[in-house]
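Lecture notes, unit on protein representations.

Consider one protein chain, 270 amino acids long.
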Amino acid sequence: MDKLIITAAICGAEVTKEDNPNLPITAEELAEEALQVEKAGASIIHLHVRDEDGLPTQDKDVYAEVISEMKKKGVNAVIQPSTGGAAGMSWQERIQPVYLKPEMATLDCGTTNFGDDIFVNDLPLMRNFAEEMKKHDILPELECFELGHIYNALQLDKEDLLPEHLHFDLVLGVPGATAATLKNLMFMVELLPDKASWTAAAVGRHQLPIAVQAILMGGHVRVGFEDNIYYKKGVLAESNAQLVERIVRLAEEIGRETASPDEAREILDI
């Protein structure tokens, strides 16, 4: 197996400090959180940002400020801005952080029922994202919430819109989308090209069991407040680093080493 890449989704677009007061929101808080999760063992920082009112924004200048603060603190992890933003945003609004030319960014691979909302990602929109990322030599993380999303990603690959190395994020447990079960995870993995790499992410209480299965299956793992704010039932997590540290311990117990940021870049062909 490759060394384990741990992605820390440290903020998200929906969680608030009312949900967990330890949530980082300001540029300074996000930069410090990024530094701490990297020290704990994460090699990718999945990044959303908020405006002055704490609301989700895709404003390029806000992303630039946060990324600059992270670099000032010495963060070496791959910083992966989200192009998902929040439900209802236009593609032009969502794609803004791509123009900062990060090493990596997310590319959502299909429309999803997201609780009471609809998260729209049709093929023309996906092509726009893929074309812009390819133009700026950015590795897309192919976000798949459903089985059909994998086929959408493979269609983009057939159209030569994706890089040679394909990296998927299999997201399970979103209300209205694919349930977070081992059977579903295994089915999705079986659909991936042989040389593709993949990360598993799961929502809420499903985060830990799906992470453990991903470690055992040779995949990679995403944890963090975007997907889960609890350490265990009824106990709020103290930090994103606390969630990362647990994954590192579990991986070490079964003999799987954790990738450094530079080793993650090598695995992902960044």
